[in-house]
Specification:
heterodimer, A: about 250 residues, mainly alpha, two-stranded antiparallel sheet, 8 helices, about 60% helix, elongated, B: about 625 residues, alpha+beta, eight-stranded antiparallel β-sheet, six-stranded mixed β-sheet, 27 strands, about 40% helix, globular
């Protein structure tokens, strides 16, 4: 794991393929000939959308920026342009859509921050396979509980009994998740308050954020396991909005 | 600059619209009819009939006629078995390949059939513009709509159909989104809209957020195999089961039943009770009559309408919304005229749905608005759509690794790294799929990619970045690059349920050849019509001179004989297929009657003017 953050704002410039003028990385249009610039090597989602690299972002402001930039880049408006400009419009639109999707949700925002600050992904396979030390106790208890529930089911226990047991098994995990949400918020606020000069402190904050995300993914997997266990007991009722619309659902 | 039209290529009906000063207008025929039935029929001599005439031929030549071809677009034979049962035409094809539709002696792919419908719409629009005195009336560019839940193969098939019809498809847009554009014209305020689109063959639900003229789709869901056709089939099956005795399930009978139940279905949107009525005919000797109430009808179709609710709930969940968050509900598609559908939608969203615009026309109107946005450069409105299905690749053990998630705003892109498994391996195969399930066998196969020309290296050393790009049409393109050498990789794409570019090219050439044959046939008909009118005009004058006894003053010596001879000759050649000869003899008759025509005209004018002052003229 490299502790060195990647210098994202490199000194390199974009080059306009139309007039050859140089443009800063965050520019979308050539300052000289005003044509759309090829995406090339980009900065990051924060600078692309023109917002500070903070974890507390104004959602309405973000949406407005997304709409404004969509109006500037969208391929619909480059139908008659040159092939180079059409490609640039397609790439910038795609990148904008990715950027907005990533920054819109607090959790994916943290993930992007970790990525551009050079930390390994908190979503990696190894990350979720290993039980985080802080969760060992809960995981152990849950597995025992689930084993018992399965045995009960095989011996023909009433669905109500099984459901009650599952609810009981879920409660401590839910508590743990709520705790994690609080910690993530706290750490996010800490990141936003830290001065760029405090490099070591900032790095510690990022490491802590990453730890929480790994644990959080693990907790979500546990909840999904309980959900699966429960779905065998009854047909799912009317659909409820999943408050965490992250990632694919089964 | 020629116009760009918007086309709603529907399962049951298709129509074309265009924008004039930013307002969309539907193209209608002389009877005010906008809908062209999406039916194609091939005559015994190879003539292609489209629309109403083809629909009539469903009864007289069912085995030569195709309807609802949209259900076969971008699909494989294994997908359509269920439909094939009651259809008059034959459906074939290899497993895992494109469906082929057999019409007695000719085979067509679904895009070719759709291209006939598109060509008809193109001609309609051109005729409309020509009649309105436009100088540049030819149409070669269009925006075509598809169900939002169409996958990549179905979209590509639609684009191929456009190409085959001689249209550059500027954009493929989603039907519910198009409808929201048409509605948005009048109410451009902000809000969250649900568009419920139940058409002839497909169901879509889209949730949109409108703000500052940006129509952003939050989520979409649906079923590309659920629509009015399914309702009709339920009714047909009920009637077939009801017909006692030997079942005459020949194509013409089924078609007669289908027509009768569709009429009854329409009736029941207006009245509480009607009758399924099939007149006695050679194919249905006894005829058939059976009363049906709206309650019975609703009981029969309720399971189908119920199937639309789960996608609605899923779309709401994906948008992170509750039904009460929806400000407006818009109904699209002919099947939303059914009162039960309206009731259930109203119940789900807790508000009365909008239906001010004709649900059959609103999609084409929206497509015309989008066409206008593309060519006018106006930026007041912008449509941001999503991809309806997750895109992934098959990994070890047949598991799908998702690269672009469903409901991602398009254009969208994704990357995936690949490497080699053995030393000096120069090629890599990638299986691309669409769908939400975990296993490749449960998802929709889109294509097999073969990367070639990977620089020879030790196994595991090459770093091949494959880039997946979904464009604003929702259509995928793939590029790959080996990062160590920077070499762009060649990719061979074998679409699973689509035509290769070469196949489309070949069809295009064939269609030109056929178009020439079709064109030739039309010119012949025109030549015959011309001959017919000259014959009639001549005979009229001859009859009149005979009855009035004015022959002596009308004809010069031998003129009458010359005319009679030319007339006989033309009549003789008229039924032939040589257009040149028909024209030649027409001209000959024209020539010998020239003087007579002038004389009779002068007489007519003289008679008309007799007794009138010069000043009055």
């Amino acid at each position: 794991m490299s502790p060195e953050p990647i210098p994202v704002r490199a000194s390199s410039m974009l080059e306009c393929r139309n007039c050859g003028a140089g443009a800063p990385l965050d520019e979308h249009f050539c300052p000289q000939c005003s044509r759309i610039l090829a995406l090339g090597r980009h900065g990051d989602y924060f600078s692309f959308l023109g917002v500070p690299r903070k974890l507390a972002l104004d959602g309405a402001d973000l949406e407005r920026r997304f709409r404004d930039l969509s109006r500037k880049f969208h391929p619909d408006y480059f139908y008659n342009a040159s092939a180079t400009e059409r490609l640039a419009s397609l790439e910038r639109s795609s990148y904008l859509n990715d950027a907005f999707r990533a920054l819109r949700h607090p959790v994916s925002r943290i993930e992007h921050l970790l990525a551009i600050e050079g930390l390994p992904s908190a979503r990696s396979e190894e990350g979720t396979a290993k039980v985080p030390p802080s969760l060992l106790e809960e995981v152990f208890a849950l597995n025992e509980e689930l084993d018992e529930i399965r045995e009960l089911r095989e011996s023909g226990a009433a669905p109500e009994t099984l459901r009650a047991r599952l609810e009981k098994a879920r409660a401590p995990i839910e508590t743990k998740r709520a705790e994690h949400e609080r910690q993530l918020q706290e750490l996010s606020a800490r990141w936003d308050a830290q001065d760029t000069a405090m490099a070591a402190d900032r790095h510690a904050t990022l490491e802590a954020l990453r730890e929480r995300l790994l644990e959080r993914n693990y907790i979500n997997n546990l909840l999904a396991t309980i959900e699966r266990e429960g779905s065998g007991l009854e047909a799912p009722g009317s659909g409820h909005g999943n408050p965490e619309a992250m990632g694919p659902k089964p | 600059m020629s116009r760009v039209v918007g086309i709603d290529l529907g399962t049951t009906n298709s129509l074309v619209a265009y924008a004039e000063n930013g307002r969309p207008i539907v193209v209608r025929d002389d009877n005010g009819d906008a809908l062209v039935p999406s039916v194609v029929s091939v005559g015994e001599d190879g003539t292609i009939f489209v629309g109403r005439e083809a629909q009539r031929r469903l009864l007289t030549a069912p085995s030569r006629s195709v309807y609802s071809v949209k259900r076969f677009m971008g699909r494989g034979i294994e997908d359509v078995q269920e439909d094939a049962g009651l259809l008059p035409f034959t459906v074939s094809g290899e497993r895992g390949g494109v469906v082929r539709i057999g019409l007695v002696d000719r085979e067509f792919t679904p895009p070719e059939i759709s291209a006939f419908v598109l060509r008809e719409l193109k001609h309609r629009a051109e005729e409309h513009f020509r009649q309105h005195g436009e100088f540049d009336f030819e149409i070669d560019r269009a925006v075509i709509t598809v169900p939002a839940y169409f996958n990549d193969a179905q979209r590509t098939a639609t684009r191929d159909a456009g190409r085959l019809a001689g249209l550059e498809v500027l954009r493929i847009i989603n039907e519910p989104t198009a409808a929201s554009l048409a509605y948005g014209l009048d109410k451009r305020d902000r809000g969250t809209i649900a568009v419920y689109d139940l058409g002839g063959g497909t169901f879509d639900i889209s949730i949109l957020k409108v703000e500052d003229g940006v129509f952003q789709v939050l989520s979409t869901n649906g079923d590309t195999h659920l629509g009015g056709d399914d309702i009709d089939r339920l009714l047909v099956e009920a009637v077939l089961a009801d017909i006692a005795g030997p079942k005459e399930q020949e194509a013409a009978t089924v078609e007669a039943i289908r027509r009768a139940v569709i009429q009854a279905k329409w009736d029941l949107s207006e009245v509480e009770e009607t009758e399924i009525r099939i007149e006695a005919s050679p194919s249905s000797r006894a005829g058939y009559r059976k009363p049906i109430t709206r309650a019975e009808f609703e009981q029969l179709i309720r399971p189908l309408v119920d199937r639309t609710l789960a996608p609605c709930r899923q779309a709401l969940a994906d948008a992170g919304l509750q039904p009460t968050d929806i400000d407006e509900v818009v109904l699209v598609g002919g099947s939303t005229r059914i009162p039960l559908v309206r009731r259930m939608v109203e119940e789900l969203f807790g508000r009365a749905p909008h239906s001010e615009l004709n649900p059959d026309e609103v999609v084409a109107l929206g497509a015309a608005v989008q066409a206008d946005i593309l060519v006018s450069g106006r930026r007041e409105m912008l449509l941001l759509d999503v991809t309806p299905l997750s895109l992934g690749i098959e990994t070890m053990g047949g598991v799908v690794s998702k690269i672009i998630l469903r409901n991602s705003t398009i254009p969208a892109s994704g990357r995936e790294m690949f490497t080699t498994g053995v030393d000096n391996q120069t090629g890599v195969d990638i299986h691309v799929l669409q769908g939400e399930r975990e296993l490749a066998t449960d998802c929709r196969s889109l294509a097999h990619l073969h990367l070639r020309g990977i620089p020879a290296m030790v196994a595991g050393l090459p770093r091949i970045e494959v880039r997946f790009q979904i464009d604003a049409n929702g259509i995928l393109s793939v590029s790959a690059r080996e990062l160590r050498t920077g070499i762009e990789q060649a990719i061979e794409v074998k679409p699973s349920y689509g035509l290769t570019d070469q196949e489309v090219e070949r069809m295009l050439i064939e269609s030109f050849e056929h178009a020439e044959a079709d064109f030739e046939a039309r010119l012949l008909i025109e030549a015959r019509n011309e001959a017919e009118s000259v014959i009639q005009a001549t005979e009229k004058v001859l009859r009149r001179s005979d009855t009035e006894g004015t022959a002596s003053e009308l004809f010069e010596s031998g003129e009458r004989e010359r005319i009679d001879a030319a007339l006989a000759e033309l009549k003789h050649v008229m039924t032939g297929t040589e257009r040149g000869i028909v024209q030649e003899k027409t001209h000959a008759l024209n020539d010998v009657t020239q003087r007579l025509a002038e004389t009779t005209m002068n007489r007519t004018v003289r008679e008309a003017l007799a007794g009138r002052n010069v000043k009055d003229v």
